[in-house]
Every structure is written in structure tokens, then in C-alpha cells.
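Side project, low priority. Logging it here so it doesn't get lost.
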Amino acid sequence: MDLGISGLNALLLGSTQGLGLSCAKSLAEAGVRVVINGRDAEKAKKAAADLGGEAHAVAGDVSDPAERRRIVEEARKLAGPISILVTNAGGPPPGPLEEHSHEVWRKALEGNMLAAIDFAGLVLPDMRAAGFGRIVNVTSFTVREPYPNMGLATGVRAGLTGAMASLAREVAREGITVNNILPGLMDTGALQRVYDAQAAREDITPEAAKARMAESVPMGRLGEAEDFGPVCGFLCSRLAGYVTGQNITVDGGLVRALI
């Protein structure tokens, strides 16, 4: 299927592995010139090389406010004006709400909320000039249905959801859409930290905690990165031009909310 975005440029944050990389693969297959980002420069370069074509890499920590403008400026130098932005960052640590210090909260807000908002602001001029733009934020199913010991992640991502809902309406008439993808229990490194923590608290094996998680999903399995990327590709496409301000859950039926 032609997504109508061949030849455009995309910056994907936190995309050297897992869900972010899956998004990059879908966009690259659609003919998009992608810029991979991650904290590890060698890992970012390898991911870009594996994608082939005109993929590039820009290393940098999105949680560092001083790094954000540099990342965007380098992406522009390598690829050109940014028409597609996919924001993604490693999740905050799991655990009971009262155990997280003020500093942990500040770090989570910086990395999982304020970073995405800053990057959106930095690329909007490119999108406005082109009369076309796609912003997709990778958040979490917990924004829709809170999950035990995930209060920190839920709190900061709910804040991002609210900010992006406002942005979606502010730029809707300029050909720019803003949407969020909410992954469920995906078999990634981030989820491993969650079931490892559950195993330690409950004195069970990580394998048992992981199996219990998979059983809680109506489809009977954890999600894979390959389940996720095509949804991102669609939301970034011209086919999704009338879809904005939405939260698309990719979770195998885990969230029980009616809407």
C-alpha cells in the first residue's frame, strides 16, 4: 500500500531498538528518509545501517534539554526539513507511587513529557512551511487504564496526552496531525523491567511473572515490535490525514475501556 509519504524526512526519537525501531522500519519501507536517535552513538549508527537506503543516525539524550535543539539541527543537516516526528523514550521505573523521590518524578517529567513537547515545537516550523506534518507520540496503555505500580509512568504520560490533545486542535488546519500510540504489554526491554520488579516483590521467577502477564491479554500473548510499527506508519501517512488528537491502543485487547 502506498502511504503517500515517500521522499519525506522523519526524526524518530528513542528508535535504536524495540517499538521505536519498528516505527522506523515501517517508515523506511514507505520510502521515508529516517533519522534514528538514541543515546548510544554506535547503536544508532548500526540501526541506521541495518535499515539501509538513506537512513541516518543522530545520537543524543532526549531527556537533556540542552541536547534537543542539537538533535533536530543535525537531523535537518543530514536529511532536510522534518515532516514526521515520532517521539519515544524509555519508561520511568515501576514501583509503588510513594517510593518515587521528587528527583525521580522530575527526571520522568523531563524525559517522558517535556522532551516530546519541546521536539514538537522545534519541528513545527518545518511542517508549517510544507503544509504537512505528522507527530506521533509513543505513550502507554496505562493512560487509558491504570496498571499496578505504574503510577509514575501513567502520571507523566497522561500529562503528555493532555498537552498533545491541545496541540492537535491548534495545528489541525495547517495539515498537521498529532496522535498517540498506546502500546500494551509488549515484549520489550521496558516490560522486562516491570516483570522483573514484580518477580522480586512476589518471590516468583521472572518467567512466571512474564507468563502471567501474557495470560492477562485476551490474545494470550505479549505484543511484538512487529505488531506496532505498521500502526505508526499508517498514522504518519497521507491516508490518515483526517485522524488527529487520537489515542490508538495496540494491546491485544488488554484495555477494557468501551471507548
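Brief comment: The helical segments are 18-29, 41-51, 65-79, 102-130, 151-171, 189-202, 206-216, 225-235.
Revisit when time allows.
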